[in-house]
Amino acid sequence: MFENRTVFGGFAVKDTDKARSFYGTTLGLDVRDGNQPGILEIHGTGGSPILMYPKPDHKPATFTVLNIDVPDIERAVGELNKAGVRMEHYDADPIVTDQNGILRGGGMAVAWFQDPFGNILSIIENEEASTGQRADDRQMASASR
Hints:
The protein is of the alpha+beta class. It folds into two domains: about 1-60, Roll (2,3-Dihydroxybiphenyl 1,2-Dioxygenase, domain 1); about 60-145, 2-Layer Sandwich (Signal recognition particle alu RNA binding heterodimer, srp9/1). Helices cover about 25% and strands about 30% of the residues. The protein contains four helices and ten strands, in the order βαββββαβββββαα. The protein has helices at about 15-25, 75-80, 125-130, 135-145; strands spanning about 10-15, 30-35, 40-45, 50-55, 65-70, 90, 95, 100-105, 110-115, 120-125. The strands form three sheets. A four-stranded mixed sheet has the order 1-4-3-2, with helices on one face. β9 (about 110-115) and β10 (about 120-125) form a beta hairpin.
């Protein structure tokens, strides 16, 4: 029914001016005006833009609304911290983050943080892609030491 159709996501924010500043300036993403008044679009390398729309009675999502792929998660966490963005810390199985708010496992590293409206965002490093080595290979190498 919907094969070969464009798909895209979106999420609500309370204030699009504040959202433009956070997503565009603080995070350095490409934020543009959308086709409809009041709508913002986040453009990345993945194809369709992500829409942000104003909702005056906004309630933050209780799940991750946006994932950002990064080549070096420690560096990205450090840069976010310098910009005043704090990582979320989780200590309930299966999500247990380290002192920097990073969860590692399954060939990836993830850190979560909130936008000014309480929406949950994440940065993700695909450790296999960044090291050129599969996670299983690294575990075998470290086990043999």
